[in-house]
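Thread: quick sanity check before group meeting

JM: Hey all, I'm pulling together slides for Thursday and realized we never actually wrote out the predicted structure for the chain we discussed last week. Dropping the sequence here so it's in one place. If anyone has concerns about the input, flag it before I start.
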Amino acid sequence: MPAASEGMLYAGSSWLLFAAIFLMVLALTRIFFSIERKDIAAGDAQTRSRLTRFRFELLSRLAYVNTFVPVPGYRNYIDQLIRESAMEEQYSFEPFLAAQECWAVFCGSLYLIVIDPSPPMAIAIALFGFYVPIARMSAARAKRLKSICKDLPYMMDLLTLSVQAGADFVFAIQNIIEQFPERPLRDELRLILAAIRAGASRKEALLKLKSRVALAEVSALTGALIRADEMGTGLVEVLRNQSAFIKNKRMQELREKAKKAATLMIVPLILFVFPCMFLIILGPIAIRMYQTLLGG
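JM (edit): ok, ran it. Output follows.
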């Protein structure tokens, strides 16, 4: 009798678990298909193929479902990543998470169907697919920061010369924008100028720049400019000091890279250069010894 009771209890728990999962899936399905066509028809005019329309509609519905996902820490991380990559117009948290989910399902299903029907390995591959959009976004952010770090000394020279010539901060930025090539740093300067002209203070515009560009040089520059603005210090001396600091830091980084290059050259020397040298030097001697021994 106790065994039968335990069996009935186990069967009842299984049915309750199945019912809970079924109701949850049903609720998510109702939410998933509750989006009206007018909400997703805006992008249909820009799409051409059926596959593109299906992908856009799928991402739109997943993005709507992701609005109910309670992950504030992960949301802040993705928002910061998007902001530092300067892709606020292309992405937001919900569509980005939808793209991660699609990549995870695609990679896991592809592994199960094509390679090996092993659930643990498929879960690992799905996690790898979930990380793919983050890796692409991180690569775009690193490329952007590298470009800004490369152009920052030149921009500081132009800004220092403009302010030293008598121009104010806004007019100096305008001159730099007109003379600077199309690069990420120019886009950041354009955002600063637009924020100031929209009514924001210089401090607010610089703090936004600091949040978008995660570089120590930019953080030091914005902090110095904010302190100069609050204390009433002249901008010429501040900009000159910051320009010298950025140039010295840049030269220090180049020296460190030059020191590392000498160490990194050891591997190709051992693998490629030394064997060729030994072959050229010792090859004729080995052939001559072989001919001598063969003749003897």
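AS: nice. The first helix runs from residue 2 to 32. The chain has three domains: 35-143, 150-264, 266-296.
JM: adding both to the slides.
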